């Protein structure tokens, strides 16, 4: 079991006062269904339905009374819950039925003791304007790819996980932890990929899994697009996103196409809502609040670094040389850092951002800014143990605080630094395997 963080959230939700039906948000194949099967062990009775199955969907379509729906599901599944016992109802692929979505409200109002979790890819929801989740009657939780800490648990690296959580890491463990992080970066965080590799330790076993994931995403597009033309644009955007990941993009000509800006923009925003990718817009201020400038070109982030490496052909080079070269290394490191920063967030609408200053005399672009205790903390990602920090210095010259972060391959340290203009600040040198501990490190260092 390596989705401990999500499972802990579900356990808290189970006993929370005023609990509402919970909707798991996430792209297909990020482990929503598997997670709920683990969670079901906490209950006396478990009723699981998939609304892509006609008989199970018809139960919701043919009645507006939630008690009647529940009784029909129990009969269909041959389950007889006893009075006073806990029951979990899991509605998978709920986006297939607008009726089932609307009934969540009445389950909340009329059957508050019933625990209800729903899940689905939600691509269909976004293409069908008639389906809306009842406002204020449900809550949401994001399920994202496996984080590095979850990867360690899946691989049986409990000692490494405890070292990272403990905070005091002896120098002799640094190389081992960096090796594990590089392994995680190569594989990515798709749960099926991680689970298969944990069993076989053979990279060759994963090719069909990556290919199957892409096929699944493309099938969704072709099945639910409003028109063939929209399906073609969505398909193009999915395929091109793996090559454009990590780059700042323009909608016009995206992926070397002739599609118009409006067509690409609409398609990318749809895919963003399905959590297959994210348009990362820049901030131009060094202070809160977070106000991304959507007039500027966004940077494109994809669901998972492993998928990106596979479909952009980087995996083949890695298998041949076990090294990344040139721009690929910098891009991959930036993407995995962003993936880890996003994994720290527990709200569906959470975003990551970068910072830019566009002036004739001194343009600058900083990889990430991390909101922490009312501050915007600059985060610069470096592939090696050294590197220039010009953009970070320009950020710190304008920042109201004096702390910055460099994510790199060297060991942890905190140093006194000065910007090019002479302003003093503290630089946290954070090894890649500690990205997930950033908030704790900031608390200890600030």
Concise account of the structure shown:
By secondary structure, the chain is an alpha/beta fold. Helices cover 44% and strands 17% of the residues. The strands form 3 sheets. A 7-stranded mixed sheet has the order 7-9-10-11-12-14-13, sandwiched between helices. A 5-stranded parallel sheet has the order 2-3-4-1-5, sandwiched between helices. The chain has a two-stranded antiparallel sheet with strand order 6-8.
Question: What does this entry look like structurally?
Answer:
With about 450 residues, the chain is an alpha/beta fold. It has helices at about 5-15, 30-40, 55-60, 65-75, 100-110, 125, 150-155, 160-165, 175-185, 190-200, 205-225, 230-245, 260-275, 305-310, 315-320, 325-345, 390-400, 440-445, and strands spanning about 20-25, 45-50, 85-90, 115-120, 140, 275-280, 280-285, 300, 355, 365-370, 375-380, 405-410, 415-420, 425-430. The strands form 3 sheets. A 7-stranded mixed β-sheet has the order 7-9-10-11-12-14-13, with helices on both faces. Strand 10 and strand 11 (about 375-380) form a beta hairpin. The longest helix is centred in the middle third of the chain and has 18 residues, at about 205-225. The mean pLDDT is about 90.
What distinguishing features does this structure have?
5-stranded parallel beta sheet, 17% strand, 44% helix, 446 residues
Would you spell out the secondary-structure blueprint of this structure?
Blueprint: H1 4-15, E1 22-25, H2 32-39, E2 45-50, H3 54-61, H4 66-77, E3 87-92, H5 98-110, E4 115-119, H6 123-127, E5 139-142, H7 148-154, H8 158-166, H9 174-187, H10 191-200, H11 207-224, H12 228-244, H13 261-273, E6 277-280, E7 282-283, E8 299-302, H14 305-311, H15 314-321, H16 326-343, E9 353-357, E10 364-372, E11 375-381, H17 390-398, E12 403-408, E13 413-418, E14 424-431, H18 438-445
Parallel strand pairs: 1-4, 1-5, 2-3, 3-4, 7-9, 11-12, 12-14
Antiparallel strand pairs: 6-8, 9-10, 10-11, 13-14
């Amino acid at each position: 079991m390596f989705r401990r963080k999500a499972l802990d959230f579900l356990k808290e939700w189970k006993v929370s006062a005023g609990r509402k039906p919970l909707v798991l948000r996430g792209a297909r194949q990020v482990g929503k269904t598997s997670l709920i099967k683990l969670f079901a062990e906490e209950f006396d009775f478990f009723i699981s339905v998939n609304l892509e199955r006609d008989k199970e969907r018809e139960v919701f379509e043919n009645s507006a009374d939630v008690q009647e729906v529940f009784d029909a599901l129990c009969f269909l599944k041959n389950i007889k819950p006893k009075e006073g016992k806990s029951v979990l109802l899991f509605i998978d692929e709920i986006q297939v039925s607008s009726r089932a979505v609307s009934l969540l409200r009445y389950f909340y109002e009329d059957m508050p003791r019933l625990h209800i979790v729903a899940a689905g890819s939600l691509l269909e929801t976004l293409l069908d304007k008639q389906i809306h989740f009842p406002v204020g009657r449900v809550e949401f939780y994001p399920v994202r790819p496996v984080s590095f800490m979850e990867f360690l648990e899946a691989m049986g690296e409990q000692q490494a996980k405890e070292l990272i959580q403990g905070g005091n890491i002896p120098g002799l463990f640094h190389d081992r932890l960096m090796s594990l992080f590089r392994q995680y970066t190569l594989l990515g965080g798709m749960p099926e990929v991680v689970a298969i590799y944990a069993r076989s330790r053979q990279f060759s076993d994963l090719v069909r899994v990556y290919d199957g994931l892409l096929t699944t995403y493309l099938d969704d597009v072709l099945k639910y697009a409003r028109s063939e033309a929209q399906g073609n644009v969505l398909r193009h955007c999915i395929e091109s996103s793996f090559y454009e990941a990590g780059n700042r993009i323009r909608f016009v000509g995206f992926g070397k196409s002739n599609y118009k800006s409006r067509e690409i923009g609409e398609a990318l925003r749809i895919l963003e809502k399905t959590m297959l990718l994210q348009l990362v817009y820049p901030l131009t201020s060094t202070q809160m609040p977070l106000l991304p400038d959507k007039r500027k070109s966004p940077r494109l982030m994809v669901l998972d670094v492993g998928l990106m490496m596979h479909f952009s052909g980087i995996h083949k080079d890695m298998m041949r040389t076990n090294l990344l070269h040139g721009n690929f290394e910098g891009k991959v490191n930036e993407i995995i850092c962003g993936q880890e920063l996003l994994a720290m967030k527990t709200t569906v609408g959470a975003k990551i951002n970068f910072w830019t200053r566009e002036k004739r005399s001194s343009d600058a672009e900083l990889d990430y800014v991390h909101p922490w205790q009312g501050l915007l903390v600059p985060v610069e990602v470096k592939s090696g143990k050294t590197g220039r920090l010009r953009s970070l210095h320009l950020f710190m010259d304008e920042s109201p605080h004096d702390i910055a972060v460099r994510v790199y391959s060297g060991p942890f340290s905190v140093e006194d630094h000065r910007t090019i203009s002479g302003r003093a600040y503290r630089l946290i040198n954070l090894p890649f395997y500690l990205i997930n501990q950033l908030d704790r490190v900031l608390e200890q260092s600030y």
